[in-house]
Amino acid sequence: MLHLRMMTPADRTDEVVALVERTVGATHLAVLTGAARDPQGDVVLCDVAREAADELLEKLGEAGVRDWGAVSVEEPDLVLSRRADVAEEEAPGDGADAVVWESLVGETHEESSLTVTFLVFLTVATMLAACGVIIDSAILIVGAMAVGPEFGPLAGLCTAVVRRAPRLAWRSLTALLVGFPVAMALTGGFSVLMDWLGLFHEARFLAPRPQTAFIWQPDAFSFIVAFLAGIAGILSLTSAKSGALIGVAISVTTVPAAANAAVALSYGNWSETRGSAVQLALNLLGIIAAGTLTLLAQKWFWARQRERTARQAGS
Predict the structure, then answer these.
(1) What parts of the sequence cross the membrane (predicted)?
(2) Which residues of the chain, if any, have pLDDT below 50?
């Protein structure tokens, strides 16, 4: 269940209440007359099954609530109510599969911003991967993958394509197109510094690295793994199963590829630089393609669910 709190002018309260009452899966409706001060008006509260929340939020948006009022959405840890159980049974589909598009757009908008924190995380992850490349450590490579924040703007780009949100697309592209070059440039400088300190050695970089050679040797599996990871990543976001994102992060070699390219470039190794760049591109394209297709499939599925529910209600 999701908990909605709406603030409305007194003359629009009945309209909002009617929308809630017509939504299959909504319950626990309450109206606090005159409780709102900014904006002035009433407060309307309700609980709605997750699988019905997107439809209600869409109707509230069409009614213009965000222009003359406000809508807040929270996910309570526990709801003990027979009415809530009935509402979830009546709502179409399953809550675990539901997509709350407004929530997804808001989350990806925040995660796709080019901020100092984003750049620091991406740079630190790339430097960690550079250390892993030099000492041929799979553990460091996995750790660097987990630290990298790049899935946020990748998910934002997928969401922007499906929702036709140019501002979100621009924010996501900016984060990727600025973030990776900055992280790679700083990692290249880091590699030069570490070499000067005697901690990185070109001979060690050129020596056989069985644990990390896959980073600069892309093949069909590079795209396949990224594609599968993109599906899992988007599903983890839309179903609120954020724990799965850790698995997604350590399954694709975006950050390690960027790191290997930076180190290779610092040593003038053009072969590994090209191979790493191709690996990076394949991973990014695989995630974006899979994420976009997954969201399109979810959009189609829930549209069919709504139509089925509407037909059942009318019969």
Answers:
(1) 114-135, 141-162, 174-194, 214-237, 244-268, 280-302
(2) none
Domain residue ranges of the chain, discontinuous segments joined by +? 2-95, 103-301
Question: CA distances (Å), 242 to each of 234, 247, 249, in order?
Answer: 10, 10, 11
CATH architecture of 2-95: 2-Layer Sandwich (3.30)
Cα 42 from Cα 39, distance rounded (Å): 9
Asked whether 46 and 18 are in contact (CB, 8 A), the reply is no
d(CA 104, CA 249): 19
Residues 6+ away with beta carbon under 8 Å from 135? 204
Cβ pair 13, 42 in contact under 8 A: yes
Instruction: Dig out the tokens for 101 from the structure.
Output: 């598009």
Structure tokens at 264: 């290779």
**Cα separation, 248 vs 68, whole angstroms:** 40
Locate tokens 């995630």: which residue? 287
Rounded Cα distance between 222 and 279, Å, is 7
Residue 24 is predicted with a pLDDT of 87
What is residue 313's predicted lDDT score, i.e. its pLDDT? 60
- Which is it for the CA torsion 289, 293, 294, 299, positive or negative? positive
Q: Give the separation between CA 302 and CA 130, rounded to whole angstroms.
A: 43
